[in-house]
Write a structure and sequence with these properties.
disordered N terminus, TraR/DksA C4-type zinc finger protein, mainly alpha, 5 helices, single chain, 129 residues
């Protein structure tokens, strides 16, 4: 990736706005992870205090489902945080505004709506067909 391409596509104000948007999304994601972790800890603690047999107790399936759901939500929230970290790095390098597939520009509106976008809308549409 040519550093001039990204630098030319963004002004200092755009870089600052993108960094702030990513930082805000990252803070929100971290709050979600903290909340989900507290819920996870509560479910784990509650299950150790009871004698639930997940396989034979009617409530056991619910507890197992809750654990699985929380585990998956935590995993997704952590992956989202990783994506935001990569987006912040792309802002720093100037690659944030450049599509990883075609090398064309990523519309500012797309990045405003989805700060972790790495491809332009045209390439994103091609990938979903």
């Amino acid at each position: 990736m040519d550093d001039e391409t990204g630098a030319a596509a963004s002004s200092p104000a755009q870089r600052k706005a993108a960094a702030e948007r990513i930082d805000d999304a990252r803070a929100s994601g971290q709050r979600l992870i903290d909340s989900l972790t507290r819920l996870w800890d509560g479910v784990v603690e509650a299950s150790t205090m009871t004698n639930i047999d997940d396989e034979h107790d009617p409530e056991g399936a619910t507890v197992a489902f809750e654990r699985a759901q929380l585990r998956d939500m935590l995993s997704q929230a952590r992956a989202d945080l990783d994506d935001l970290d990569r987006a912040a790095e792309r802002v720093r390098t100037g690659a944030y505004w450049v599509c990883e597939r075609c090398g064309g520009p990523i519309a500012p509106e797309r990045l405003a709506a989805r700060p972790t976008a790495t491809v332009c809308i045209t390439c994103a549409n091609k990938a979903t067909r």
